[in-house]
Amino acid sequence: MGMMLLKGNETPLEVICLAYGLEEGLRKFYSSSIKLAIGPAVVGLLTKLAKIEVKHKQRLYDLYFTIDPSPIDVDAFEKRINSEFMEGGFDPAKFLEKSMPALKTAAGVLDFAMMLEAQAMDLYMRYAEKSEDPEVKNILYQMANEEKAHLKSLGDILDKNVGE
Hints:
Layout: H1 12-36, H2 40-67, H3 74-79, H4 92-99, H5 106-130, H6 134-163
Helix pairs in contact: 1-2, 1-4, 1-6, 2-5, 5-6
């Protein structure tokens, strides 16, 4: 589904805005999941994951201004953003319904989060390879590398939780 989100002719700013929207969609997903979670460990993990998505959004917001230094506050910026989808190109509400069994344990949440980060990394890599705009290609590779780092961080958290 994520393939439908990019046409291949986006500007660097459009790519950043799309990625920002996907991060916000995932933050919404984790926040909604908190309300349905069972147990403090799962609630704590989902809360942490939602906060991480806020950091990812900030990184993209900052990146936006390296390309377009025009002053715009975050509220005005977010009005330009479509956050109907989350990383992986999924609809957060529909995906929450399907993924509830995976969100019953901390390990399930981490496995699920790792799957989403891997899909996002793959999406950005595929589009970086297709893009003919060097600046867009660079941004997409940068985003793919960040998703790879997020995936490693989640793996480290999973290792820690399994060891407990």
